[in-house]
Design brief:
Radius of gyration: 23 Å
Largest sheet: 10 strands, mixed
Number of strands: 20
Distance between the termini: 38 Å
Strand content: 15-25%
Shape: elongated
Helix content: 25-40%
Strand order of the largest sheet: 1-20-2-11-19-16-17-18-15-12
């Protein structure tokens, strides 16, 4: 199967040798979007854990996606603090890589990017009546409307700030989630057209979302494409002339070229993770994982055979062995469902979580391998040293890679490599 990326592009030059230039602590999503500090003296001491984010990989991944998208523009989706990678530095790296749009879920995320001075077209789509529509319209944030109340909210905001709102009308084409259903679409379109004629807004996009793009060839994709084309036709017959039609997520960007239209919206692939892991891994898609999660052993001790380990003693040592304590737990985003299954790399060898993942820590049975407090443990990364990937943790926890990287918590500082220009900061 072709994934739309030239074979020679499969090796992304964004290796681990880039110098560390900034470390930032995490804050709650939506308020963390300050600029990455310029290079300077590093904080004293070594963090007990960190997530290293390779911005060169982000740029390279976006460049690959731009090549794959052909004539369509690329919107880099940086919602949820850029899938846990850091919204502001990732947004800037994505723009440097060729993206011309950014996408977020909530309005607060969009306003935080604008407050940080991040340029480019910016769409927010998961909105409620209680959001600050006035601020978003004033900041030039483009907004989604999937129901008449959203059009009315945009009109009120446009009146308040004396600036037309920029709207993307969302059609529900088969996902069964947000957007106007087929029976409600005409009314939404007519209301938006009337507001546009009155000068309160401009409809700049028509969009929807695929339900099963990660299953290439599934018949629902063809049905949704047909429904989407029909919705776009209704909008045009009502006199609307949107700048862009957009439907594709990461999976469709890579596997469904007929769904590219004018704009694609990759999320997971921006971060170098495969949206179709059962068909192809990151390397086969020409992508490089951008996050490496590491910790340092907090303690090492020798224990006898039969030693119960962690809560519930779900694991017992088969013989005399060495146990290493890793100071990361489910409060940091390590999934408890990966107890007894999560893979880690210590001193060049893979091991598995021994026993139950706790709130702040988990244990690894190191056997007879030499180890000392402070030794590095790699939970996941791009695989350069034989370490597991986020996809391996997803399999261990019976989830998806999106969740593994996005859930890495606020106690884990982000360290950025690959800052090549002031615009990345």
């Amino acid at each position: 199967m072709s994934f739309g990326i030239p074979r020679q592009a499969e090796s992304v030059e964004a290796g681990p040798g880039a110098a560390v230039t900034a470390v930032v602590d995490r804050h709650p999503p939506g308020v963390s979007a300050g600029p990455v500090p310029a290079a300077g003296p590093a904080p004293s001491g070594t963090p007990h854990a960190q997530a290293r984010i390779d911005l060169a990989a982000i740029r390279a991944n976006v460049s690959r996606l731009c090549d794959t998208a052909g004539s369509a523009e690329v919107m880099a989706v940086v919602k949820a603090d850029a899938y846990g990678h850091g919204a502001v530095p990732v947004a800037r790296a994505a723009l440097a890589g060729g993206a011309t749009w950014l996408g977020v879920a909530g309005m607060r995320e969009a306003l935080a990017l604008r407050a940080a001075g991040v340029p480019g077209r910016l769409l927010a789509w998961l909105l409620t009546p209680g959001d600050d529509w006035n601020a978003a319209v004033a900041a030039g944030v483009e907004l989604s409307a999937g129901a008449p109340w959203a059009v009315r909210a945009a009109v009120r905001a446009a009146r308040a700030v004396d600036r037309p709102a920029l709207l993307h009308l969302e059609a529900e084409t088969g996902l069964g989630r947000s957007g106007a259903a087929a029976g409600d679409w005409q009314a939404l379109v007519d209301g938006a057209a009337a507001a546009e004629a009155a000068g309160y807004l401009r409809v700049v996009g028509v969009w929807s979302h695929l339900a099963r793009a990660d299953e290439p060839g599934h018949p629902s994709c063809a049905r949704q494409l047909e429904n989407f084309r029909s919705a776009a036709g209704i909008a045009r017959r009502a006199g609307l002339a949107p700048d862009v039609l957009h439907l594709s997520n990461s999976a469709a960007t890579l596997t469904l070229p007929e769904a590219h239209f004018d704009l694609v919206r990759p999320g997971l692939a921006v971060y170098g993770l495969s949206p179709v892991p059962d068909l192809a891994g990151s390397a086969e898609l020409g992508l490089r994982p951008a996050m490496t999660l590491t910790a340092r052993l907090a303690s090492v001790k020798r224990v006898p055979a039969g030693q119960g380990v962690s809560y519930g003693h779900r694991y017992r040592t088969a013989r005399e062995t060495t146990l290493g304590l890793v100071p990361l737990g489910y409060a940091d985003g390590v999934p408890r469902h990966a107890s007894q299954a999560g893979p880690v790399l210590v001193a060049g060898r893979q091991h598995t979580v021994a026993g139950t993942v706790c709130m702040d820590q988990f244990v690894v049975d190191l056997g007879d391998a030499p180890a000392a407090p402070g030794d590095e443990v790699v939970l996941f990364g791009p695989g350069d040293r034989g370490e597991p990937g986020a996809a391996d943790w997803a399999r261990a926890a019976h989830t998806i890679s999106h969740e593994i990287v996005t859930r890495i918590g606020a106690r884990v500082p982000r360290t950025y490599t690959g800052l090549s220009a002031p615009g990345d900061r």
